[in-house]
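Entry type: protein chain
Record version: 2
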Amino acid sequence: MRYKLLGKSGLRVSEVCLGTMTFGETWGWGASREESCKQFELFLDRGGNFIDTSVNYTDGASETLLGEFIQEKRPALVIATKYSLTKPDSSDPNSGGNSRKNMMQSVERSLKRLRTDYIDLLYLHMWDYMTPIEEVLRGLDDLVRAGKVLYTAISDSPAWVVAEANTRAELMGWSRLVAYQAPYSLLDRAVEREVLPAARHWDMAVLPWGILEAGILSGKFLKPVQGGTRLDPQKLDLPEKAQGIVAEVQKIAAETGRSMAQVAINWVRQQQHRAQIIPILGARSAEQLEENLGVLEWSLSDEQVQRLDNASQIELGFPHSMLPGNRYLFGTTFDKIDNHRL
């Protein structure tokens, strides 16, 4: 395990993060207390120190279990949690969203469950399109000044929100956002359009989730057939392009002698040229987590990365399709300019 500075901060975190949305069984799936503890101990044994949860994961069971596990090791761990989400059937209009009220209530709830007096990294979980951004930023900064939160971050929100938030934070002397969490996988590369460029510009770490697409990229839905395997159409009906991506992952797994899951995770892990990437590894068992941690032992070749790029390529669309190399901007000089900012 190696460590990274988390975005534009001095905080040192492990190169992969342990996701704990599977800690607890109150949602009808996930890991028992015993299995969750095994995952926690395994991750620490491999050198991991960065753990992700949320105030709403498994209706609070995730934070509660994590709070039990971290007690003797708290100073050495970097604990990230999130606020914004509520129960789907909640009738209280202030029990969710980005408001200061929900922020403060959620943080107090998280601190109590985690049995700690501070949160290392607090994310805004999802943008609600209602709360003024200055209310969010001032609330987060107040929490930092009170010592209840050390660093702030954002998740599942538009790139323009990130840009305005960090601009306002710098102008006002408030705590800036140092990390962004988003879905990113070979089957979902949408963040390459705006989110990853924004994160790179603002020196924010990107923590991808959903890397295996609910098991699709792990081979979970493949079934044996004569001469090999294929996707089981009774369990999963994928578009032709997605089927091609799964097939390419399977081919490279066979070439490398590694699992499909490791191939898919390593493709994401090796996108460091797009932004600082710190994958979130979530599992339902210690065995699955051990398998996923195997990515730290090897890397895809440049040729293999290119094959996966080609199979999963997306159209970036406007304005990306119009601007780079535009002759009305550069005439015939574009290829003669050494741009150190690329």
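Comment: The chain has one domain: 3-213+263-299.
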